[in-house]
Amino acid sequence: MKRIHILLLLPMMIVACLNELSPAMPDEEETTLKKAVGHHFLIGTTLNNAIVNGRDPASDRVVKRHFNAITHGYAMKFAMLHPAEGRYLFDESDAFVRYGEQNGMTVIGHCLVWHKQLPDWVVRDKDGNLVTPEALKARMREHISTVVGRYRGRVKGWDVVNEAFLEDGSYRQSPYYEILGEEFIPLAFQYAHEADPDAELYYNDGNMAVTKRREAVVRLIGQLKARGLRIDAVGMQAHVSMNFPKVENFEKSIQAFADAGVKVMITEWDMTALPTTDTGSDGRPLTPEELDPYPEKMPDSASQAWNARMKQFFDLFVKYSDVVTRVTVWGVSDIDSWLNDFPFPGRTDYPLLFDREYQPKTFVREILGEE
Ligand code: 9MR
Questions:
Q1: Annotation says 357 is catalytic
Q2: Confidence tier at 16 by pLDDT (50, 70, 90)
Q3: Per-residue pLDDT averaged across 8-36, rounded?
Q4: 279 or 170, greater pLDDT
Q5: What is the pLDDT of residues 43-63, one digit of tens each?
Q6: Residue 313 · residue 321 · CB < 8 Å
Q7: Distances (CA, A) of 66 to 63, 97, 173, 351, 361
């Protein structure tokens, strides 16, 4: 008798176990950004350690629902990965790459060569003098081959060099430039390609709508290609504001990079809703209230203007979707944006696609077909 009972119950027990184990089925009707724009380009966001390690479930839900590409805001920068000679800290970047894999997302590496978060030991000797070109080359090669090699086949593409030019088109006087001259950029691309021949390689910079910087980057693409080095795309950061840049100038840069023979990725998109200078148009210093005008909430008129301008940029990206292969926003919700602390801490900014309640902004709801 007993045996028969158990056999009869067995199918029900199996079904109950499977229900426990299988994740909730995605709602077919759920609107998501990746469904809405996935046929145009990858749609990405940045993660931080709290999201990766499960300490921020609200952001985690938004990331998993809406995005199919991820960049880490800081875990792969030189000082975070490699703070001292011979000492690597991979826990956070390993967890980040795993998060992407477990959720079927495209993982982007940011960034290999940057003048910020560059530890002194890489570029200076114990007396504080710049190291020799040979020493820096050896350190660059070792760092790049270790990091890119570790994630070979798992990170789709790397921001190989970040922010190497000034807006007048000249090279930034970074330690890399001071020690190696212009050569540091081709070397970085060469080392990255050697470490993972299948990885895409990008040059990434900000304020790319500025003519001289655009021209400098076009020249760089030509130089790299002339030497047979791999460069797949230019990353246009796109930290834009309400009055800068003109959308037409941004468009000119997309066209110029496409004409130079690379794809374009929008890599750090956000738009501050706050003043970006500390003086008014009459030269008078702005008061603390003027510098942080919306500590509680954005008024409707400001919010409408912000949404309209973001939609203009989005429409531009769609217009060039044969060239623009990824659009990544620099953060998940307004709470997390770096802009709340820029250029001084404690401002309340509204630069991202999701508000402080993790709800999509108006122009995002339009894209989702919810408006
Ligand atoms: O948003 C990033 C912030 O969390 C980091 O503390 C900071 C330093 O690593 O970098 C910020 O991201 C920058 C990006 O790496 C390069 N372009 C400008 C971004 C904003 O400062």
A1: no
A2: very low
A3: 61
A4: 170
A5: 999 999 999 999 999 999 999
A6: no
A7: 6, 18, 39, 17, 13
Q: How far apart are CA 92 and CA 116, in angstroms?
A: 19
CATH class of 30-275+287-367: alpha beta
Torsion angle of C-alpha atoms 82, 84, 87, 92, degrees rounded to 10 = -40
Q: Ligand 1: which residue has its CA nearest to atom 8?
A: 74
The full set of domain ranges for the chain reads: 30-275+287-367
pLDDT, position 311: 98
268 is catalytic: yes
Asked if 187 and 139 count as a contact pair (C-beta separation under 8 A), the reply is no
* Angstrom distances, CA of residue 234 to CA of 201, 214, 255, 257, 322: 9, 10, 12, 7, 14
Strands 157-162 vs 200-205: parallel, antiparallel or unpaired:
parallel
C-alpha 226 to ligand 1 mean position (Å): 31
The predicted-structure confidence for 73-87, as pLDDT tens digits, reads as follows 999 999 999 999 999
CA 104 to chain CA centroid, nearest Å: 17
Tell me how many degrees the CA angle 11-16-22 measures, rounded to the nearest 5: 120
* Residue appearing with tokens 């477990």: 102
The pair of three-digit structure tokens given for residue 206, joined into one six-digit string:
């900000």
What is the distance in A from the centroid of ligand 1 to the CA of 361?
A: 23
